Amino acid sequence: MMARVGQLARLLREQAGVDERLPTDLDRIAKWCSVVVADIPLDGFLGYYTSVGNRHGILLKEGQPRTQRRFTLAHELGHLSLPGHDGATPCADRDVLRPRVSRERERAANEFAAELLMPAFRFRSDIRDRDPSIELLAELADEQRYDVSLTAAGIRLAKLTHEPVAVVCSEAGRLKWKDWSRNFSYALPSSGGRVPGGSVAAAVLRGEDDSRVPERIDNHAWFDGREQALEVYESAINMHRLGRVLSVIWVVERD
Ligand SMILES: [Zn+2]
What we know:
- There is one protein chain.
- The protein has two domains: 2-117, Arc Repressor Mutant, subunit A (Orthogonal Bundle); 121-253, Beta-Lactamase (2-Layer Sandwich), CATH 3.30.450.
- Helix 3 packs across helix 4 and helix 6 (134-141) packs across helix 7.
- It is α+β, with helices and mostly antiparallel strands.
- The two termini are 36 Å apart.
- It has helices at residues 2-15, 26-32, 66-81, 104-117, 120-127, 134-141, 150-160, 200-205; strands spanning 35-40, 45-52, 55-61, 90-92, 165-171, 174-180, 211-217, 230-239, 244-253.
- Zinc ion (ZN) is lined by residues 75, 79, 91, 95, 106, 109.
């Protein structure tokens, strides 16, 4: 199903005449879909897709930061476009802009949103030969590029990179969520577990400056990296507005 989700998002870009232009013009897509978008007070939910007859409406929780609103809107456009997603269901905070959510429909809508905002073929070429880092995420997330949150860019990086990379979000000393690339084969602490003291995330959580470029850390800081041939790097940023720290962990495997 997931491969088809990406195809449908690409088809929608084409049909709506957005093609390869970035950042993705969601207003144009919403207009092409004849969908009315309204920002209203919503409690506990970020977005809602509904239809009456052949009319479609997307309701967004008012006051979302711009990039988060963009992701939520793209997610709701996913519910509107994907087969079997009809029937209004509000989308909770925990299901939007999180990796590996358990509800299949929500996961599909997130995948659709990611492809709509960050088309894989472009994103892959943007990350090729670049060190996976917060610096790279900030460059890609920029208003003039993909115009997405650092979080969205980070989850996309974990999905599309060939490097062993993990993206970890921490809050109040604990892991909030984590995501990792298909070549990352190391066991990170569980969500809800303590952020390890030797990590850059822990230093940033203690109030030290962000570390936007990869910094060599102890092999054991995040996981049991016994192999000698490993080098582990981490970059991390304090997302003050959210009260969270985002880390990119990158393993260089020497052969
Ligand atoms: Zn949803």
